[in-house]
UniProtKB/TrEMBL annotation:
Biological process according to GO: nucleoside phosphate metabolic process; ribose phosphate metabolic process
Keywords annotated in UniProt: Hydrolase
Keyword Ion transport: no
Recorded superkingdom: Bacteria
Protein name as catalogued: NUDIX hydrolase
Residues covered by the Nudix hydrolase domain: 45-179
Molecular function, one GO term: hydrolase activity
Signal peptide coordinates: none
Coiled coil: none
A cellular component term, taken from the record's GO annotations: cytosol
Amino acid sequence: MTTIKDTPEEWETRATRTPFVGNKTSVRTDEVVMPDGSVVGRDYQVHPGSVGVLALDAEGRVLLIRQYRHPVRQRLWEIPAGLLDVPGENPLRAAQRELYEEAHVKAEDWRVLTDVYPTAGGCDEAVRIFLARNLSEAEGERFEVEDEEADMEHARVPVDELVRGVLAGEVHSNCLVVGVLSLVAAEKGDGLDALRPAEAPWPARPFEA
């Protein structure tokens, strides 16, 4: 019987170059040796990694933000999320920061909901999506946002309504879709308390405790 589990593997790379370096990401070209011995160029985006937060309130609603995403020319409903800006940064700390900055909310209960590679065919981005519960408003002044976040909208939406929207093709954010469907699967399975602890190892983006 085949074990369905992703495993580390790295094919030989004969050469590599970085034709583009941007503000937060870059593009790399690797010359990779194929199983038949041929060498093929593979272009991909180099990404620091991200965290997302599915924040679930006491009424069973998910905290959402809505902001403009220029690459797809749409204003998307999303869960709070952000880049792992500091190499080796603890992803839980990053997630707590994003929830505060984007929603002015804190949570007492944190667990790992799921880990994904959103576009493994063309980008090395790894995303850890957390489940945050026992929510309350953060103390102090709100974080001052800018750029696309300056006119963010906020909403709290029941899980069932989000699932309907996902299946109807009305919401498209990767973290929202994966997070909500994973939440429902966890609830129908062993329950939310059986999810991995917030500090669970993450081989895709090793971090300091």
